[in-house]
Design brief:
With 172 residues, this protein is mainly α. Helix content is 62%, strand content 8%. It has 5 helices and 4 strands. The radius of gyration is 37 Å and the shape is elongated.
C-alpha cells in the first residue's frame, strides 16, 4: 500500500471540492457551510451517544456480573454456615433486635418494640411517619385511652411516651 498515492488522491478530491465550492454563488456557499456544520453536529452527537451507550453496556454488564458473583458467594457462605451448624450440633444464634427503648422503660416490663415518633402538625392532627397518612379518629381515641394505636393504613404501632401524653392531653 502506497501512502503517498493515498495522500495524493485525498489532496486531489479536496482540490476538486474547493474548485466546485468557489464556482457556487454566495448563498450556495453559505448553505454548503451550514450543511457541513449540521453534518458535523449530527456526527458528533451520534459518536457521543454511541460511546455513552457502549460505556453503559459495559458498566451494567460488570455490575450484573458483580451482583451475580456476590449472590453466589453469599449463597455459598450460607450453605457452609448451615453445614457447620448441622455438623457441629451448635444452635444457630438468633438475630437480636436493635434496642431503641430507654433502659428505664425496659426495666418496667414494657414492650421491647421501639417507640414510633409521631408528627404533630396542628390541633389534633397527627401523621404516621411510615406511610404519611393522617391518623383516624379511632386511632386518636385509642392513643388517648390506651396510649397505644396501630396505623390503619400500614399497621405500624405507636405508643405514647411521657412527653407525647402531655401533648395529646392538651388537645381535645
Amino acid at each position: 500500500m502506497d501512502w503517498s498515492n493515498i495522500a495524493d488522491k485525498i489532496f486531489l478530491w479536496y482540490n476538486e471540492f474547493i474548485e466546485w465550492y468557489l464556482v457556487q454563488p454566495i448563498y450556495g456557499q453559505i448553505l454548503v457551510i451550514i450543511g457541513i456544520v449540521a453534518l458535523l453536529a449530527i456526527l458528533i452527537t451520534l459518536v457521543y451517544y454511541l460511546i455513552k451507550g457502549i460505556s453503559y453496556l459495559i458498566y451494567y454488564a460488570i455490575k450484573g456480573v458483580y451482583y451475580l458473583l456476590k449472590g453466589v458467594g453469599f449463597g455459598f457462605y450460607k450453605l457452609c454456615e448451615g453445614f457447620y451448624y448441622l455438623i457441629s450440633g451448635e444452635p444457630k444464634p438468633k438475630k437480636q433486635k436493635q434496642n431503641l427503648i430507654p433502659q428505664n422503660k425496659q426495666s418496667n416490663g414494657q414492650s421491647e418494640e421501639p417507640y414510633r415518633i409521631m408528627e404533630i402538625v396542628q390541633h389534633n392532627i397527627m401523621y404516621c411517619n411510615e406511610c404519611g397518612n393522617k391518623f383516624s379518629e379511632k386511632m386518636h381515641n385509642n392513643l388517648k385511652i390506651n396510649g397505644i394505636a396501630f396505623c390503619v393504613h400500614c399497621g405500624k404501632r405507636f405508643e405514647l411516651n411521657e412527653t407525647t401524653k402531655h401533648i395529646i392531653s392538651i388537645y381535645p
